[in-house]
Design goal:
By secondary structure, the protein is mainly alpha-helical. 54% of the residues lie in helices and 8% in strands. The protein has helices at 16-32, 44-47, 54-70, 88-97, 102-106, 109-116, 124-138, 152-169, 214-222, 240-253, 257-264, 269-294, 298-326; strands at residues 2-8, 36-42, 78-82, 144-146, 177-179.
Length: 331
C-alpha cells in the first residue's frame, strides 16, 4: 500500500491559507487516493528553531490535530501523531546531517532569508532543520508528500539526501514524490499580495484565522487590497490582490477561476468581496463548531495515542535496520 505523509508546524494561529493550501488538500487526497494510507504529524520539533512559550506550543499542537479532524480527516485511514513523541525523528535527523552538505543547507530559503537580513539570533537548528525534515519523511518510507509551491525546495533536498544515502549504503529509503495542488497551493496576504498569507505577520488584516468570527472574516475581506482598475479578471501580474481573492474563492468552492470571473465580470469589487466574505463564513463556521466539540473530547487523545503507537513501532524497526546498515552499534 502506498503511503502519503504530511506535517504542519504549530507556530502561530492556523490561517485560511493553511486550510486551503494544506489541510483541505490533505482531506481531498484521502477521498481521491483510496488505495493509500496517510501519516499526518504535528511538527512541534520544527517549531523550536525559534523560541516558543511552552504552554502555547502544547496548546497549538492539540489545536492543529483537532482542526484537521474538524475539517473532515478520515480517522480510520490516518495515523495522526505528535512528532516529538517519536524519538527516531531526531535520531535519523542527526544521521542525515552526515549525508547533506553545508552548501545545500545554506541555499534553503528559511535560513538564507534570515542570513541575508544579518539577523543575529539564528539558531543552529534553523540551519540543520532540513535534515530533520528529510528524516520526518523517509523514516516512514513515504511515497508521496503534498507540498505548496514554496515547499518544493525542501522536498527536492529530501529526495537528494535519500538518493545519496541509497547510493552509498544500498537501496534502503523510499525516494518520495511531490503532490502539488493545482489551485490554492499559495494563498497570499490580503494586505500585501506579494507575500504569502502568514500567521506571523504583525498586521492581522492580512490573514484570516481558522478561529475568526463571522464579522471579523467579512471585515478582513472588505478591507483586502485590490486595485483601481475596477474590472474583475484573473491577472496575477497586474492585479495581484484581485487574483489572490479569486484564488481564495476558487479554492474555497472547488470552482474554476474562469467560471468565477464570468460570474462577476459585470460586478463591482464591493459586491464580489461581499459574496466572498459569505463564502468563507459558510466554510469556516461549521468547521469551528466541530473543532469546539473535538478539542474537549477524549477521542482526540485516543487518536493521538493510537497514532503515536503505530508510528513509533514503524520508526523503531526502520531505525534499527538503518543503524545496522551504516555500522552503528556492536552488532
Amino acid at each position: 500500500m502506498k503511503r502519503v505523509l504530511s506535517g504542519i508546524k504549530p507556530t502561530g494561529t492556523l490561517t485560511l491559507g493553511n486550510y486551503l493550501g494544506a489541510i483541505k488538500q490533505f482531506v481531498k487526497l484521502q477521498r481521491k487516493m483510496t488505495d493509500c494510507e496517510f501519516y499526518l504529524f504535528v511538527a512541534d520539533m520544527h517549531a523550536i528553531t525559534t523560541r516558543q512559550v511552552p504552554s502555547e506550543l502544547r496548546k497549538r499542537s492539540l489545536d492543529i490535530a483537532a482542526m484537521y479532524l474538524a475539517c473532515g480527516l478520515d480517522k480510520e485511514r490516518t495515523i495522526l501523531f505528535i512528532q516529538s513523541e517519536i524519538n527516531e525523528h531526531v535520531e535519523l535527523g542527526y544521521i542525515l546531517q552526515s549525508n547533506v552538505y553545508m552548501g545545500e543547507l545554506e541555499r534553503m530559503t528559511q535560513f538564507k532569508d534570515k542570513a541575508q537580513k544579518q539577523e543575529t539570533s539564528i539558531t543552529a537548528s534553523l540551519f540543520t532543520y532540513p535534515a530533520l525534515m528529510a528524516a520526518d519523511i523517509i523514516l516512514y518510507d513515504a511515497d508521496y508528500v503534498p507540498v505548496g509551491d514554496d515547499q518544493k525546495q525542501h522536498l527536492e533536498l529530501t529526495r537528494t539526501i535519500a538518493s545519496r544515502f541509497n547510493n552509498y549504503y544500498g537501496d534502503f529509503f523510499t525516494v518520495p514524490e511531490p503532490i502539488i495542488p493545482e489551485v490554492g497551493a499559495r494563498i497570499m496576504d490580503l494586505q500585501n499580495p506579494e507575500k504569502k498569507m502568514s500567521k506571523s505577520e504583525e498586521n492581522d488584516k492580512g490573514y484570516i484565522t481558522m478561529f475568526d468570527d463571522a464579522e471579523t472574516i467579512r471585515r478582513k475581506i472588505r478591507s483586502a487590497v485590490t486595485d483601481s482598475e475596477g474590472v474583475i479578471r484573473f491577472d496575477p501580474q497586474n492585479q495581484q490582490g484581485l487574483a489572490n481573492l479569486l484564488t481564495i474563492y476558487a479554492s474555497a468552492t472547488d470552482r474554476d477561476i474562469e467560471d468565477i470571473v464570468n460570474q462577476y465580470k459585470d460586478s463591482s469589487y464591493k459586491d464580489f468581496k461581499e459574496d466572498l466574505g459569505e463564502v468563507i463564513v459558510n466554510l469556516l463556521v461549521p468547521i469551528q463548531e466541530k473543532y469546539n466539540e473535538i478539542i474537549k473530547s477524549q477521542e482526540l487523545q485516543d487518536l493521538l495515542d493510537r497514532g503515536r503507537d503505530i508510528a513509533s513501532d514503524y520508526a523503531f524497526k526502520k531505525m534499527r535496520k538503518c543503524k545496522k546498515k551504516i555500522g552503528l552499534g556492536r552488532k
